[in-house]
Design a protein that fits this description.
393 residues; alpha+beta; 2 domains; 4-stranded antiparallel beta sheet; 9% strand
């Protein structure tokens, strides 16, 4: 191509724009910027339909309700011509699974140990989107997780990483510890090459899952996933997952932490993405006494706040029941009379694991006789299982 031609000038302008966007993204704290086309994931509709047909989305009805828009970016916004994918590192500064060695504490997923990432990333995406508009004109839309956007396959198509066997995105530079955000634009930008799968024969993430939530590599059954069960699922935790849940009270990082590519992960530098000390392995005894006001205050600005006090205490009570720590019995016993049925039911199960049999019978007789909720009654009436005797009684 001859220098000075319109085509050469266009390519030069495109390179300068991309360099300016990369520099701006870096200045805002993003780890990488990459670009793809809205038609870059043609296999997504069929894969999403398979996932929904199998019921693997559990109670997340919104996934089915937004299926058309989720599967095709052009259905979500017909005017979109390019999609910018941004990554932001939230790598932990310590072993993320230390809580597993201490049943007296609760395990909170790394991403939730700091300020809500939606608030952090969305503002930065808007600033970058404004910068893009100032250079190209046109319209933009900004998305972070909550919109019906299949960000992981789009990010793989853009070269930001690849979807590992645990279905999460993996990066050669960041491992598994990073957030995704996207900017849809009417501007025509040159796309990046997609990333290839670097998992090879490794199955570390699959074998690490405590509930066998992967029926096969690259497929997740959310109904068996502790992240889904502790965050998205509103009712009682199914009995088969309670003991495997251990002391994971918000999310589960086991499959992420097992990924060998984490050797290249970086510790988060963004101050707002550094863990709060009180959310790293907090004592269960401190969490079980939280009332609604205390819960809201403690988790102000945290993504944990969105699940509400009742669901959170349900999780903490399952952890208490798994702990074998009888010093927690008074607090668990108090919560067995809580106003929320999901809390009372989890407390009943925990007492069944913590109380000596004779004491349990007396408590059961007193509380079950006054119980009106069928789910809670079923907890009191459930026979002890072999697993219940794993803890000395």
């Amino acid at each position: 191509m001859t220098a000075g031609t319109p085509e050469a000038a266009s390519r030069s302008a495109g390179r300068k724009l991309r360099a300016a966007l990369d520099a701006k993204a870096q200045s805002l704290g993003f780890s990488s910027l990459s670009v793809t086309r809205p038609d870059a994931i043609p296999e997504a509709p069929a894969r999403l339909r398979q996932f929904l047909d199998a019921g693997c989305h559990g109670s997340m009805a919104w996934m089915a309700e937004t299926e058309d828009r989720r599967a095709d970016p052009c259905v979500l916004w017909p005017e979109v011509r390019s999609i910018l994918i941004l990554t932001m590192n939230y790598g932990p500064d310590r072993d993320p699974l230390t809580h597993l060695a201490d049943p007296s504490v609760g395990g909170i997923s790394v991403y939730a140990r700091h300020r809500d990432y939606h608030d952090i990333i969305k503002g930065k995406l808007k600033e970058l989107a404004g910068f893009l508009v100032s250079r190209t004109g046109g319209d933009v839309k900004v998305f972070v997780d909550t919109a019906p956007v299949m960000e992981k396959p789009l990010a793989a198509a853009a070269g930001a990483g690849w979807q590992g066997k645990h279905t999460n995105l993996v990066s050669r530079q960041l491992g598994s510890w990073f957030f995704l955000g996207s900017i849809f634009t009417t501007a025509e930008l040159d796309p990046d090459a997609s990333e290839v799968d670097h998992c090879g024969s490794c199955k570390a993430c699959l074998t690490a899952c405590p509930t066998d939530a992967f029926p096969e590599a690259y497929r997740l059954d959310a109904r068996r996933c502790l992240s889904y069960l502790t965050i998205e699922h509103a009712g009682p935790i199914p009995h088969e997952f309670r003991q495997p849940m251990g002391n994971r009270i918000y999310g589960c990082d086991d499959c992420l932490a097992a990924c060998p590519w984490n050797k290249f992960a970086q510790v988060a530098q963004e101050a707002k993405l550094q863990a709060r000390a009180d959310l790293v392995d907090p004592p269960l005894a401190d969490l079980l006494h939280l009332d609604d006001a205390g819960f809201r205050q403690k988790f102000s600005g945290s993504p944990i706040k969105r699940i509400g006090r009742d669901r959170f205490l349900r999780n903490c009570l399952i952890a208490a029941g798994n702990s074998g720590d009888r010093s927690l019995i008074p607090e668990v016993l108090r919560l067995a009379s809580d106003t929320a049925p999901v809390v009372r039911g989890a407390a009943a199960w925990a007492l069944g694991r913590l109380l000596p049999v004779a004491e349990l019978d007396a408590v059961r007789e007193r509380l079950a006789s006054a119980e009106t909720d069928d789910d809670v009654l079923s907890e009191w009436q459930a026979p002890l299982t072999t697993a219940d005797f794993d803890i000395p009684r």
